[in-house]
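User: tokens in, sequence out, please.
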């Protein structure tokens, strides 16, 4: 393939110990991995982060250690600040501002923020102008014209549509080449394709991040009790598989692909990286290198 596919990986803070083992392997054994793919960024947020959203964060790695690791490997860090219910009073939160100050200029790679709130966007543009910005999938942009309008906003470098638009090629191919390069597809979503309550689910996470006393969101999926399973995600009508990326998306001018999984274990994250980035004949070698690392508790 002449063109590259860029994968945006989960767990910047949540899976720091995992990436501390995986990234050296990725850099030193390029022959194990497809030469047409790259790590576009690693995204996430620490636990109990006021501006957090999307998933309830549990990352407990020290931000300074995370920043040093990303700087060492020149990988873009993305702070997941996708809380959709922020008010002016929340913008002064010291912890979130300290994270911005630490990551805004950290090495040669440009760092970004994934967000849902226009209030937060304006604040960050004024106070941390070196960041690039990603429009979060938590906006649930399921209507294509709403998504088109979002992709045309100059303040966003990337825009993540609702996964129900992943296969809407008759509409996606009406985007300009510049807008196509901004589309970041969520590949491995396991959510019920017919879910009508996705926005409420995300708002529940936002309320929890703000410290509000609220009940857990009741998932409306008929298979909610199964939890996340990659095998189920592969059957989802919105699933984007490896062959789809190689043979359909990249040739049509799309290059950005997001892998979800911040709330999952590092063992399943490894399976994602094996599936999407690792040549089949080297998958066992990568598994062994990761599994035999004495510093990791994969389960």
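Assistant: Sequence out:
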């Amino acid at each position: 393939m002449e063109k590259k596919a860029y994968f945006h990986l989960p767990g910047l803070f949540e899976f720091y110990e995992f990436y501390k083992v995986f990234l050296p392997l990725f850099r030193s054994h390029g022959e194990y991995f497809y030469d047409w793919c790259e790590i576009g960024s690693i995204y996430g947020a620490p636990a109990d982060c006021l501006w957090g959203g999307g998933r309830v964060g549990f990352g407990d790695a020290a931000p300074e250690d995370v920043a040093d690791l990303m700087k060492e490997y020149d990988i873009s860090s993305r702070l997941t600040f996708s809380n959709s219910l922020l008010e002016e009073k929340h913008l002064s939160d010291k912890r979130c501002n300290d994270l911005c100050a630490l990551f805004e200029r950290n090495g040669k790679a440009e760092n970004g923020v994934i967000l849902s709130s226009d209030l937060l966007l304006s604040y960050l543009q004024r106070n941390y102008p070196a960041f690039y910005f990603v429009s979060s999938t938590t906006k649930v942009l399921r209507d294509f014209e709403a998504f088109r309008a979002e992709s045309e906003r100059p303040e966003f470098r990337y825009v993540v549509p609702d996964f129900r638009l992943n296969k809407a090629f008759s509409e996606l191919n009406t985007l300009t080449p510049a807008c196509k390069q901004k589309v970041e597809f969520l590949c491995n979503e396991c959510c019920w394709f017919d879910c009508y309550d996705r926005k409420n689910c995300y708002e529940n996470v936002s309320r929890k991040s703000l410290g509000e006393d609220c009940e857990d969101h009741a998932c409306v999926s008929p298979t909610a009790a199964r939890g996340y399973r990659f095998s189920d995600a592969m059957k989802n009508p919105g699933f984007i598989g490896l062959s789809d990326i190689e043979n359909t998306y990249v040739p049509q001018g799309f290059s950005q692909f997001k892998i979800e999984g911040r709330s999952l274990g590092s063992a399943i994250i490894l399976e994602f990286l094996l599936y999407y980035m690792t040549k089949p004949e080297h998958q066992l070698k990568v598994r062994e290198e990761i599994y035999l690392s004495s510093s990791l508790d994969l389960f």
